[in-house]
Amino acid sequence: MKHILIIEDDEKIQQFLHSILTEIDNSFYLHVSPSAAQALEIANTHEISLFFIDIQLTDYKGTDLANELRALQRYKYTPMIFATAIVTEELRAYREIKCYDYLIKPFTREEVKQAVYGVLDYMKHVHINQQTVRFEQKGFIFEHRMQDIVYIESYGKKMIVHLKTADGIFQENLSGYSLKAIHELLEEGPFQQIHKSYIINKDYVKSISKAENTIKLQGHSAILPIGQKYRDVLMKVGN
C-alpha cells in the first residue's frame, strides 16, 4: 500500500486532491497536513511514497520543507509534486530540489491525474530497475539485477542463468535450485515461464512465432521453444 502525503493549508484543495487520489486508487493510504511541522512528523512516522507540497505554507515555504525531506536518506529520491501559483518558485523547485512535477493553481482534475499517473509509472520502472535476486552457491552469494537476466535454462540437474553484460551474454551455472524455485525468486520481476526448461525476461522478447511455437530474444541468437502448457499466456506478451 502506497502512503501519499498531501501538504496543503487550503481545505478545499486538500479535499480536491484527496478525492482525485481516491478515484485513481482507493488503496492509497492518504495523509493530509496543513503545515510543514506536522508533515515532518508524518514523514518520520510513515514510509511516504509520494509528496504533494504546496510551496506557500502558513508556517514556512514548501521548498524549505522539501529540502528538509531531501536531507533524510529515505526521501532522497522520493517523488514530489509541487503546487504553486508563483512561477519563479516552481522553477526553483525543479532546479534545486528535483521535484518530479508541479501544478500551477488553479489546477484541474485531469492535470492532477496526469501528474500522479506519471509518478506511478516512474516508480514502477525505478522499482524494477533496482530489483535484484540472490543465488547461493557453496557458501557464496551472487547478486544480479533482474533487468540483466535474459533467460534461465534448466539443464539436467543444473540451471544456467543467461545474463546481459557490457561484453555480451554471460552464462552462470547454478546448482541446488529447481526451475520452480527460481521462478518464485523472480516473481516480482518481468519473468514468464515458457517451457518446462525455460524462464524468460519478457522485456527481452524480440519476436514470437505462433506457427513454430518459438521465441527470439533481443541480443541472443538462441531460438527457444514454447511449451503448449504455456503458449496461451505467453502469446499475450506479443499482442
Automatic annotation (TrEMBL):
PROSITE patterns: HTH_LYTTR, RESPONSE_REGULATORY. The modification 4-aspartylphosphate is found at residue 54. It comes from the Bacteria. Residues 3-120 form the Response regulatory domain. Keywords: Phosphoprotein. Residues 145-239 form the HTH LytTR-type domain. InterPro entries: CheY-like_superfamily (IPR011006), LytR-like (IPR046947), LytTR_DNA-bd_dom (IPR007492), Sig_transdc_resp-reg_receiver (IPR001789). The keyword Phosphoprotein applies. Pfam families: LytTR (PF04397), Response_reg (PF00072). This is DNA-binding response regulator. It comes from Planococcus faecalis. The lineage of its organism: Bacteria, Bacillati, Bacillota, Bacilli, Bacillales.
